[in-house]
Amino acid sequence: SILYNTSISVKEPIDNLLLSNAIRPAVVGMMRTLSREIGPMGIRVNAVCPGWVRTDRVKQLLAKNPSREGEIVAQIPLGRMGTPDEFGAVCAFLLSPVSSYIHGALLLIDGGLYHGMM
Question: Which domains can be identified in the chain, with CATH numbers?
Answer without folding.
Answer: 2-109 (3.40.50.720)
